[in-house]
Amino acid sequence: MKKVISLILMGCGGVGRQLLQHIVSCRSLHAKQGIHLRVVGVCDSNSLLVASDVFTMELGDTSLLQVCRIKSDGSSLLTLGASGELQVFTNLESTKKIIDVATLLGKSTGLALVDCSASSETIALLTQAVDLGCCIVMANKKPLTSTMADYDKLISHPRHIRHESTVGAGLPVISSLNRILSSGDPVRRIIGSLSGTLGYVMSEVEDGKPISEVVRSAKSLGYTEPDPRDDLSGMDVARKGLILARLLGWRINLDDIRLIESLYPKEMAPGVMPVEEFLGTGLLLLDKDIKERVSKASLSGNVLRYVCVIEASRCEVGIQELTKDSPLGRLRGSDNVLEIYSRCYNGQPLVIQGAGAGNDTTAAGVLADIIDIQDLFP
Ligand SMILES: NC(=O)c1ccc[n+]([C@@H]2O[C@H](COP(=O)([O-])OP(=O)(O)OC[C@H]3O[C@@H](n4cnc5c(N)ncnc54)[C@H](OP(=O)(O)O)[C@@H]3O)[C@@H](O)[C@H]2O)c1
Ligand SMILES: *[C@@H]1O[C@H](CO)[C@@H](O)[C@H](O)[C@H]1NC(C)=O
To answer: Superkingdom of this entry's organism (predicted)?
Structure first.
């Protein structure tokens, strides 16, 4: 008897496409484990492809790989066109169609909605799907960092939701914390470098390189968002901090996170300064200050790290001076590092370290989450 996990993928960007590739290439592994991943739908921001009969049909591997190719070429999913196997819907009809499928499958065969988008538009859909009995797997941080009411709704059936890849990509951050918490071991402090870009920037400036040069090379290495200010603002780290704080049971919102500093001043914000100007002359104005702070820290044997700290009743995001011989102080390059202190991990923290970004590891984290909910499928 094979266990069939039915799913709809939302978002086919870097992560979503990599997930489809992993699903196809893991077919024989999953068959050995007695599992089959049945993709009944795939959507992006403009259109939705759905199996013509969601009970008996699925998007075959040929279609899934075609989706990847079409999206990498920058074409629309509509290019694939309707066929005997597939129905195609445009943006306006997609949400309603997904709800229809969730209504049909949620409480019968089971259905996982897999959110690999980077959008807040999926929140309404996901919260409705929870009531229809669906499972939810997310790489997207937005649904979990919206209002407390949305959060409560999403986690109302904790066994139905997985979101390992929202913090530290494929690293087992969420699952490790959940294990600690469910054993009644109180988490007293979490401190982490949760941005590959900022980890890389801070360790390079430590070697005496000007931050302007470091940011430009990080961009050319593909470590940053197209506009590096999306990373340098610290907002993405704040979202990850909020997800961790809420996991600890804190009832707080994004506004309650103290975003101590963005690495650029307000005058250089997107909307005020064009990205070309920021990368050109703007960045140069940041060099002197960072250089001075690095030297000052190094006089006391310390290093600067861009971290998220969750402790007592505060959650803060910004640059902190740390001792060189701590796990975070030793961090080099773009790895994420997380130190967790609890009763069991008291003097020495539990340390989780490794690549915290990248399509491959992120998609692998999502796939492992999907496999992890298999028992909820008949
Ligand atoms: N890449 C990483 O290393 C990494 C690591 C950890 C977490 N994540 C998270 O994983 C998610 C995906 O990242 P990515 O790098 O793959 O992003 P991406 O390349 O920007 O892809 C986003 C995808 O979502 C689709 N989309 C946008 N709005 C949508 C909507 N309302 N409904 C359905 N799909 C929608 C986009 O559609 P179009 O194709 O039509 O634009 C696109 O296909 C993000 O939330 C990101 O924060 C990424
Ligand atoms: C992730 O995928 C996107 C889209 O295919 C690509 O542009 C980007 O370079 C990939 N990122 C990494 C780190 O491989």
So the answer is: Eukaryota
Q: Quick one: 3-169+360-376 is in which CATH superfamily? A: NAD(P)-binding Rossmann-like Domain (3.40.50.720)
**For range 265-270, the mean pLDDT:** 95
Integer Cα distance of 293 and 159 in angstroms: 46
Comma-separated ranges of CATH 3.30.360.10 domains in the chain: 177-356
- Candidates 2, 71, 240, 288; catalytic one: 240
**Top-level CATH class of 177-356?**
alpha beta
| Whether residue 140 has its Cβ less than 6 Å from ligand 1 | yes
**pLDDT tens, residue by residue, 227-254:** 999 999 999 999 999 999 999 999 999 9
At 196, the amino acid letter reads G
Residue ranges of the chain that CATH labels 3.40.50.720: 3-169+360-376
d(CA 236, CA 159): 26
Per-residue pLDDT tens over the stretch 131-150: 999 999 999 999 999 999 99
Mutate to test the pocket of ligand 2, among 22, 165, 359 (most ligand atoms within 8 A of CB): 359
Long-range contacts of 61-66 (CB under 8 A, 24+ apart): 61/24, 61/27, 64/20, 64/23, 64/24, 64/39, 65/20, 65/21, 65/24
- Residue 13 in contact with ligand 1 by CB distance below 6 A: yes
Q: What is the pLDDT of residue 83?
A: 80
pLDDT score for 82: 74
